Amino acid sequence: MYLLGIESSCDETSAAIVEMGDGVRRICSNIVASQIETHKLYGGVVPEIASRAHVEAISRVTKDALETAGIPLSKVDAIAVTAYPGLIGALLVGVNFAKSLAYANRIPLVPINHIHGHVAAAYLSNPDLKPPFLALVVSGGHTSLYKVTDDTHYEELGSTRDDAAGEAFDKIGRVIGLPYPGGAALDALANEGDPKAIPLPSPALAGETLDFSFSGIKSAALNYLNEKQMKGEAVDRADLAASYTARIVEALTKKAERALVETGLSTLVLAGGVAANSHLRAALTALCKRRKVTLALPERSLCGDNAAMIAAAGYYEFLAGTRAGTDLNASASDEGIGANLSSPF
Length: 345
Known about the structure:
43% of the residues lie in helices and 20% in strands. The chain is of the alpha/beta class. Helix 9 (278-291) links the parallel strand 9 and strand 10 (294-296).
């Protein structure tokens, strides 16, 4: 079957056509309109600007996705849209557009959890992947470990109690003058520094918990920079990038290993924007090799926000009977939109 995916949870407007079925996981098109150049002026995403940009782009990217795939809307079997979590104004643009398109063309509408979409990106890059597996989702807004028992059921085992790993990377990258968004540039700069040069606290919370806290390491890095500035001393940005990256990657790897031991699962999926981080990919590759566990990585092009992953997740939700109607609303939180699933078209 063919699914049209629509994604607008943050600062990318995306539409995609994905073909899914028994033995078939194929991206026919995946159009992404990025707002990086716009938000670069402000050093971060401005929600109101993001929402307006989605309004301007969503019709165009959807048309481009259909034309690139060579699939007319009449052949689309379902429309999957990110409904939660994310920036509420941005989400509403995608949800309302998808509702209108689905209603006007009598196409089933499937609401998608953005986090589940990130995990589903791994299906598109790993044809043999199937649950159960452990999923580590690391992005600008989320850092969580999930036990995925089947394609639509996720049990959260641990998460960040404050900031997300991606936000922590972007913040320090911005502070030391790296191009926006700072995470990718910090990853590259870390290759040039000494990962043991600067002592920093671990974001992995002590004890048996699988939770994280990234506020402490951010504060420690900022204090280090302030002290250097007050003393008039130069900062070795490469050493800071390497040390900062190493502590975060060590924490993520440590908790992922603990979760693998506790669950007994034999497959680990890495997902989310930070899944593109070269140091994290290398560390988890080494961990899985050592523990003889299968590692499923999405292609880097599918790590960031995109509609192909939403369409992939939509396929499994469609099979599970998930539908929505004109009463579908968006939600900024992870708690979702269960109350809005009672009125399919």
